[in-house]
Write a structure and sequence with these properties.
The complex is a heterodimer of chains A (156) and B (161).
Chain A: H1 2-23, E1 25-30, E2 44-49, H2 51-55, E3 63-67, E4 75-82, E5 87-91, E6 100-104, E7 109-113, H3 123-126, E8 129-130, E9 134-143
Antiparallel strand pairs in A: 1-2, 2-9, 3-4, 3-9, 4-7, 5-6, 7-8
Chain B: H1 2-31, E1 33-38, E2 52-57, H2 60-63, E3 71-75, E4 83-90, E5 95-99, E6 108-112, E7 117-121, H3 131-134, E8 137-138, E9 142-151
The chains are: A alpha+beta (156), B alpha+beta (161).
């Protein structure tokens, strides 16, 4: 019977962890060049909070994680540029031309872009992201140590 | 003083039982089964207009086992606080032909569902706002698959095609 009670307590602590994960916050590891210089190319460990997405208190300039609209198993980290109803002007293909386009973000969607627009697949490629795919707001960097602290605002 | 301490201890113990039960309920709710009350005319005649209570399972969409013909709960792409109940008509890379106005058959369009998206439609095409209006929906918005109706009791059972 000792094995059973320890199994129960493991299940209980996993349930508590899962509930905290879903309603409070979690950690996420990111890598890739699309958020340079804010995030590293080799990887960051970030703290994510889920309260802002549930209460709808996100603002342009927040770094968010969301489920990719193209690959539903992947979680993507980008910066929020526009909320629904905002007018967004973006450079379509900064490596080849300076052409800009302006759109209005449709209802129930948000516009996200990476900080390093030369190497980032974001709303300029897959369009505005439905708000329901957002999973949390990144608010603190844990690793690497030299970047410990809150994230930098959008570079000019 | 001692009386307050024992009362506080008892209160914390009772509250922790409630919290633990709610956590367990939440985990079963998101990963296994949950009940859902669905209403509205968009899924006639499969679902009633006045409301049905259905059993929803949350395993299939995580393992990628939802497909065409399944009734699913989907978070609305227009209002993230609303959950829609619709049928998946086409998965990614399928070609879908639809007409916005079903009373006029000649105004039909077709397109290929993009990668990572699904095409959902209500069974009652005359009174349903679905992918014909807001386009294909990302797979990540699917919350669960409806597989059993539990209320009203005279229509208890699973759904046809």
């Amino acid at each position: 019977m000792g094995g059973w009670s320890s199994f129960i307590s493991i299940v209980r602590s996993l349930c508590l962890l899962h509930a905290a994960n879903n309603y409070l916050g979690t950690t996420v590891i990111t890598y890739g060049p699309s958020m340079l210089p804010t995030l590293n190319i080799t990887g960051n460990l970030l703290l994510v909070e889920r309260i802002s997405t549930r209460t709808g208190k996100l603002r342009p300039g927040d770094v968010v994680i969301f489920r990719s609209p193209e690959s539903p198993r992947k979680v993507v980290c980008k910066r929020l540029i526009g909320m629904e109803g905002d007018q967004v002007t973006y450079v379509v293909d900064p490596k080849n031309s300076d052409r800009c386009e302006t759109i209005v973000v449709p209802k129930g969607h948000v516009w996200v872009e990476g900080d390093y627009i030369y190497d980032s697949k974001d709303s300029r490629n897959f369009g505005a992201v439905p708000y329901g795919l957002l999973k949390g707001r990144v608010f603190w960097t844990l690793l690497p140590r030299k970047d410990f602290g809150s994230l930098a605002p959008k570079p000019k | 003083m001692r009386q307050w301490r024992s009362i506080a201890k008892e209160a914390v113990a009772r509250a922790s039982i409630v919290v633990k039960f709610l956590c367990f309920l939440h985990v079963t709710d998101s990963y296994l089964l949950s009940f859902s009350h669905v209403l509205g005319p968009s899924m006639l005649p499969t679902l009633n207009i006045t409301g049905d209570v259905v059993l929803v399972e949350h395993l299939s969409h995580r393992t990628g086992k939802v497909g065409s013909g399944d009734l699913v709960l989907v978070r609305s792409p227009l209002d993230p606080r609303k959950t829609l109940t619709k049928r998946i008509v086409a998965m990614e890379d399928d070609k879908v032909t639809f007409s916005l106005d079903p009373t006029r058959n000649y105004s039909s369009r077709s397109l290929v569902v993009p990668k990572g998206h699904v095409w959902i439609q209500g069974d009652n095409l005359y009174a349903s706002r679905d992918s014909r209006h807001f386009g294909p929906v990302p797979y990540g918005l699917i919350q669960g698959k409806v597989f059993l109706r539990v209320w009203p009791p005279n229509s208890f059972g699973s759904f046809g095609q």
